[in-house]
Amino acid sequence: MKLTSFSARPPIPMSLAIILTVASVYLCAQTPTRNQGTVKADVWQVPISQNLMPHFEEAHGHKVLYVDGRPFTVLAVEIPWWDLIYGRYKETENAYDYLYPAAEKMALNALKVPVKWSMLEPEKGVYDFSYVDHAKSMAEKHHLKLILNWFGHYASGDGTIYGNLSGELYAPMYIVSDEKTYPRAVDGDGNAHHNAASYDYEPIIEREIAAFRAFMQHVKELDSQTHTILMIQVENEIAVFGWNRRNPKMWRDHSPAANKRFAENEFTDDLKFTAWDLSYNWIRRITNAGAEIYPIPFFHNYVGGKIADWMVGGAPGEDVETYLKFCPNISFIGVNSYFCAEWRPDYSCGRASEATVEELREPLSRYRVGRNLPAITEINSGATPVASRLAYIAIGEFGAPIFAPWALTVSYPESHAPYVLPGGTLANGAFALRDTYSSLSKALPQISYYAGTDKLKVFMSTLPGQRFSQTEDVNGLKVTVTGDDNGQAIVMHLSGHEFLLVGYRTGISFQTPAFHWPEMKSIHVEKVRWAGDHWEHDGEPSYGVDQSKKTLAVQLDTPQVVRLTW
Length: 566
Prior knowledge:
The chain has 14 helices and 24 strands. The protein has 566 residues and is of the alpha/beta class. It has 2 domains: 14-40 and 454-565, Sandwich (Chondroitinase Ac, Chain A, domain 3), CATH 2.60.220; 72-442, Alpha-Beta Barrel (TIM Barrel). The strands form 5 sheets. Strands 16, 17, 18, 19, 20, 21, 22, 23 and 24 form a 9-stranded antiparallel sheet that branches. Helix 9 crosses helix 10, helix 11 packs across helix 12 (386-397) and helix 12 (386-397) packs parallel to helix 13 (430-441). The relative contact order is 0.12.
């Protein structure tokens, strides 16, 4: 056991060597095993659910995602979609296979995988789910779950049903090529946009509902026993026309059918109309149809940002409260929040962000609307520590059910720093995210269950890279955490003297009269990981007791979980 000394972590005196040896022998003798017969119930054994399907339950005062009957948080990254080429879908089906083993190496427990409507319905009424089957097979081979993104509509670039007619074709070609049957949206100047569908005409909605029902029926038949597919993202950053969101003439559809609905329902505000129109007339019907078939969680995602003081987010119609009101089968709405110190006119980043803790919290706080459970469905990828720091905050403080940077092969908003290189090699920020995800994974049910409560506290520096020392009350007891080099920790305290310490590159100390001989004989320090229904030994902890100061210090140098009792 090596104890490293530096200014952020007080050195442990060498005189403690004998005490540590005695304590270790004592603790080994006292540590219960599963084969000892009657063992005291583990206080960290969180409640299980009899419903094994992926679903949300009210638990411990907040909504918790359950998977296979246990609390769960999705630790993911998204993969792209443009290398899956229209007209060559079979030929390009394996384009992203090398990302599954890379995801496993990064300690992800899930991949966020886009599935385009155009892939699943190559001809009207003819369905092909081979890509879904292939993604499930690859995920299971590499011990991953899946979040499937239903892309019938895409609004991050120009256009919603296609960006181009190859890799970025979302709706099927029979929809794209027939604007008479499937009319297009019209902007405030009266211009119809061929790449933007109007959702005020029934034919396209009817076709998408039919396709989505077929998709969910296949997911049910494919996965209702194995639960590899956890959730469905329905569409992506929806808007009316695409990315020109700051132009008021594109805040709503001005087609004849849309104008009629606007007038009949006595709207005066274009954004409020869009939120109601898209949620009630489109997303509600799609998600209701899907839930009738196979009711796993459905969710939305939006672009973070402000377009009006009273509206949440940046995309026209991005009104979280309205969508949740009219779409009862939307479980939550996540935010796609990107941090950059200097944005260029083309939305690329001129200078990487050094976001403070409060700045990282801001988009999650803004999405705490009504029944919503804030989540991060896209965030910076690349070399900066934004994602690795925000994950602890989102999951620990807000109980986010999913955290997923965009994307494995694309660094955004910074350029040229992907997590995974073309050969599958990890690079840039992949290692920092791996530290974060691997540490969380070792106690994921406990973190998921107690997230957002007074029993859990997140510790990190205010700015990235800083040394820090922070003392906080965690459910009635004082805890001091020190660290540097973007180290961070989660401290959980249920009651009495029972703590769970999660993190890396930090030191965690406690002060109490119990840390003195002979009272210290009751101290139990164990490095552990959760193995489904019990703790497993995970190596030797690094800790020491300073009897003169009645202080115990635990070192979390590498990603780990330590259980502490006294």
